[in-house]
Amino acid sequence: MLTYILRRLVLLVPTFLGIIALNFFVIQSAPGGPVEQYLLRLEGADKAFMERIGAESSDSGGGMGGTQSFDAGTTDGLYKGNRGLSPEVVEEVSRMYGFDRPIHERFFLMLRNYLSFDFGDSFFKGRSVMQLLGDSLPVSVSLGVWSTLIIYMVSIPLGICRAVRQGTRFDAVTGTLVVIGDAIPGFLFAVLLIVLFAGGSYWSIFPLRGLVSPGFEQMTLWQQIADYFWHMALPLTALVIGGFATLTTLTRNSFLDEIHKQYTATALAKGLTMGQVLYRHVFRNAMLIVIAGFPSTFIHMFFTGSVLIEVIFSLNGLGLLGFEAAMTRDYPVMFATLYLFTLLGLLTRILSDITYSMVDPRITFGSRGVSRG
């Protein structure tokens, strides 16, 4: 097993570099980069400034009967009317963002810095990327870890109960409920929760925004824990409502498939109870396919699944940070979040294989691949 893990860690390096390189060159080659974004803002600000000056001159008459004209080409060479910004300004902005260098040089410079987790400064937020990540990481970790735990802690027992009670009213009712929950969009359910429980129209029980209350540092430990989960209650409820259906159905079908196999009937014939058969024999076989989906579930909840929830509940997490960076072409923030989530995704794949062996010791990862001992 140790040999397999070391081999996977070695293979992780070229895989990681390939993903980063592909995304880097695709994103860097796309139009509308940070230089263009900055120039548009700069040109728009200059135009607004010139229009305001012109309007003030017109209102005051300028000592020429209100017909004074303004020379737009005399503002330190920054604004040239309809001709846009001067080439010197464009060149300076390109140099400021490092785009005066060839693309391959920028790529290797980024890799060198990222190996030491030096992500540089945000182009548009005026802060270092590490500071932005440090502020956003607790929110995403909270949403990702707790939502994944809740989904697994509810879905696996529920799926087992549905498998054991196949065809009963319990199976039908719970199956209908989880399908209804899956059909409700998370953001729509979040709005409903706000309307009902966060002072929207009915009760004001839970806070509307933030991860903790003001004065959190002065609270006792138990008060901090209570305050934290008080703020997390609505976002987590909205986030997990649609996550039960897939895992519950997967667990149910996996257990049904194992229950109907011959070794289960043989174990029952030897006098074992259904509970003993389930947890001694069926569980480790049926859980393999469930564990296989853990990395994707965690990554989904950690990043993509929480973007809208973070927006609705004003939670400054990595999902919202990455989305805003993509919209504004803030490359340092974009590549830093990509770096972290790619690394996290690859490591969770290895963790999934380790969990396979913990659940079923018969599975080994030898030099010839996966085998069942």
TrEMBL record:
<dbReference type="InterPro" id="IPR035906">
    <property type="entry name" value="MetI-like_sf"/>
</dbReference>
<dbReference type="GO" id="GO:0005886">
    <property type="term" value="C:plasma membrane"/>
</dbReference>
<feature type="transmembrane region" description="Helical">
    <location>
        <begin position="228"/>
        <end position="251"/>
    </location>
</feature>
<protein>
    <submittedName>
        <fullName>Microcin C ABC transporter permease YejB</fullName>
    </submittedName>
</protein>
<feature type="transmembrane region" description="Helical">
    <location>
        <begin position="333"/>
        <end position="352"/>
    </location>
</feature>
<keyword id="KW-0812">Transmembrane</keyword>
<comment type="similarity">
    <text>Belongs to the binding-protein-dependent transport system permease family.</text>
</comment>
<dbReference type="Pfam" id="PF00528">
    <property type="entry name" value="BPD_transp_1"/>
</dbReference>
<dbReference type="GO" id="GO:0042884">
    <property type="term" value="P:microcin transport"/>
</dbReference>
<feature type="transmembrane region" description="Helical">
    <location>
        <begin position="286"/>
        <end position="313"/>
    </location>
</feature>
<feature type="domain" description="ABC transmembrane type-1">
    <location>
        <begin position="137"/>
        <end position="352"/>
    </location>
</feature>
<dbReference type="GO" id="GO:0055085">
    <property type="term" value="P:transmembrane transport"/>
</dbReference>
<feature type="transmembrane region" description="Helical">
    <location>
        <begin position="137"/>
        <end position="160"/>
    </location>
</feature>
<dbReference type="InterPro" id="IPR000515">
    <property type="entry name" value="MetI-like"/>
</dbReference>
<keyword id="KW-0472">Membrane</keyword>
<keyword id="KW-0813">Transport</keyword>
<feature type="transmembrane region" description="Helical">
    <location>
        <begin position="9"/>
        <end position="30"/>
    </location>
</feature>
<keyword id="KW-1003">Cell membrane</keyword>
<feature type="transmembrane region" description="Helical">
    <location>
        <begin position="172"/>
        <end position="205"/>
    </location>
</feature>
<keyword id="KW-1133">Transmembrane helix</keyword>
